[in-house]
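Title: Prediction job returns without error message
Component: structure pipeline
Severity: low
Priority: P3
Assignee: unassigned

Description:
Job completed but the reporter wants confirmation the result is attached to the right record. Sequence as submitted:
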Amino acid sequence: PGTVTEDTLLPARDSNYLASLASDKTGWSLAWADLSTGLVAAQSGVQQVDLVNAIVQVQPRELIGVADVLTALAQHGVLGDITLTAQPAQRFQPQHGEQRLRQLYKVHNTD
């Protein structure tokens, strides 16, 4: 949505991570990618008490998540100038991700 991908608009010496946050019964998952270098990483099973620290360590330029979660994180006041981008909750459901992968790669299943 508001992600800057033009190299000339991004700080050249800094990582420019785009991060996404989701949760399930095992905890929180944080995935991040630097579109300019191709680096992709993820961390799963993050407990709620460690969530802010995990995000601060990655130092993303933008964090994508569900609106109420992003609002709660912003209230901590430690996220600095990270751009917060809210997306509908259904986008973070495993079924939605699997459906998008099948459509993208034109396959019937992801096995």
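Comment from assignee: result matches the submitted record. The first helix runs from residue 51 to 58.
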